[in-house]
Amino acid sequence: MIVTFLRKIQSWIVAIAILANICGAFVLLALVVIMNIDVISRGVFNAPFRGVVEVVIFSLVLIVFLQLPDVVRTGKLTRSDGFLSLIRSKNQKMGNGLSRLLDTISFGFMCLILWTVTPEFFEAFESCHFFVPPEFGLQPTGDFWPDLKVAMARCDYFGTPGIFTAPWWPVRLAIVFGTALAAILFFFKAVLADDLRSVPQTEKAKS
Q: What is the pLDDT of residues 167-180, one digit of tens each?
């Protein structure tokens, strides 16, 4: 009963991870377009794209943490698994147990990252005062779009004023989202190892 329920949740989480991966791919595509525009504008018009460095930094964080969950799901997260493959070739049961242990440890690390980043996200989000009137500055007028524009200008930001600035909270939200989803997937890999565990190519060839 519990296993069936977990497998149903797992299917939803996997679908979300795949969708996040697709969104990360679109961000990557947009980054490629921006880089090409910058190259053309520098070479042809001698007018570089202002803020391209900040855009690259912003985009890379989004790409990494949007695609992280699907990387975890497919077992393509960078790691050295030579010892694990050796153990599996000698003793499949022991190798699977060690793999579950590693997934459990990875789940713990993702939870630690999530525990660290989540308060930073809320702090950055609350700096915008979307729902609470600010103590200083322009007060809400009741018009949605003007109020939203003013609130976005109040947010904690990164970048260079006058060139490119962006609020911190979307980046930190992406980090929270990616690490939370990765933690859940590591949990399922440890508990439901037969569904999400990746099989090395050498073992696939043998089968």
A: 889 999 999 999 99
pLDDT tens sequence across 55-81: 888 899 999 999 999 999 888 877 767
Asked if 105 contacts 60 with a C-beta cutoff of 8 angstroms, the reply is no
Q: In whole angstroms, what is the distance from residue 116 CA to residue 120 CA?
A: 7
Instruction: Confirm if 194 and 81 have CB atoms less than 8 A apart.
Output: no
**Interval 137-174: pLDDT, tens:** 677 777 777 878 888 888 888 877 777 788 889 999 99
Rounded to two decimals, what is the model's pTM? 0.81
Dihedral, 190, 196, 202, 204 alpha carbons, nearest 10 = 130
Q: Is the dihedral of CA 153, 155, 156, 158 positive or negative?
A: negative
Q: How far is 96 from 88, CA to CA, in rounded Å?
A: 7
A 10 A CB-CB count for 56 gives: 14
- For 157-195, give one letter per residue: b (16+ CB within 10 A) or e: bebeeeebebbbbbbbbbbbbbbbbbbbbbbbbbbeeee
Neighbours of 2 (CB within 10 A): 7
3 state DSSP class of 133: coil
Give every CB contact of residue 179 below 8 A, 6+ residues apart in sequence.
Answer: 65, 68, 110, 113, 114, 117
